[in-house]
Here is the input.
Amino acid sequence: MTASPKLHWFKSSYSGGSGTECVECAYADDGALIRDSKRQEGPVVQVQARTWCALIQALADNELR
Here is the structure.
């Protein structure tokens, strides 16, 4: 899948700002898209909405370490 230029890509507020390690996300109709911020023309991972929500909840609950 290639990323549409019309999508609103965003970085986590936890990103360090050094530009070396970051992913970007964009919301799609049926879930979320994830890509490497340094390779914007590279591959995009598509995640279903319920899977994305479960990941965000697990992160919020500090379950992923």
The longest helix spans residues 49-60. The longest strand covers residues 23-28.
